[in-house]
Amino acid sequence: MQRTNFGEMACSIARTLDVIGEPWSPLVLRDVWVGINRFEQIQADLGISRKVLTERLGHLVDHGVLERRPYDNRPRFEYVLTDKGVELVDVLMVMVGWGDRWLAGTDGPPVLYRHHACGEVSSVDLRCAHCGERMHAGDVDVLPGPGSAA
Q1: Distance between CA atoms of 79 and 32, rounded to whole angstroms?
Q2: What per-residue confidence (pLDDT) applies to 131?
Q3: Domain range spanning residue 63?
Q4: What is the pLDDT of residues 43-77, one digit of tens each?
Q5: What is the CATH number of the domain that holds 104?
Q6: CA distances to 56, 128, 150 from 31, in Å
Q7: Tell me, what DSSP letter sits at residue 2?
Q8: CA-to-CA distance for 47 and 53, rounded, in angstroms?
Q9: Cβ distance 42 to 31 under 8 Å?
Q10: Does residue 129 carry a pLDDT above 60?
């Protein structure tokens, strides 16, 4: 069965899913973000097959989210987030907030995040880029943009 090409849809959510919509991709990004950046390390941490990991890493490199850098005289590479990838991790941080609220259970969140600027443990908070007020789904109207489908 051929996979739907979400990248061709006139929808930013669909286009993003085309890059990271496969379940292993966000976990690979998470690992690279926290410093698990070599193939063997990622494979061991996730328990993912070599074939699937090779495909996921290649896909993320092809989409400019990760960059391969040699770290040995042999053809071995480590993976680092590009600027595009770092910004995508911001999306994952929003997912963390949702998961912590709705899925963490009585034990609480499995991971905490300390903000570098103030040193406090915190969470991501969506705010309007224009006025600084908090933003949630019920606080916005969805309007057609310049790239919308006719």
Answers
A1: 7
A2: 96
A3: 6-138
A4: 999 999 999 999 999 999 999 999 999 998 888 99
A5: 1.10.10.10
A6: 13, 29, 40
A7: P
A8: 10
A9: yes
A10: yes
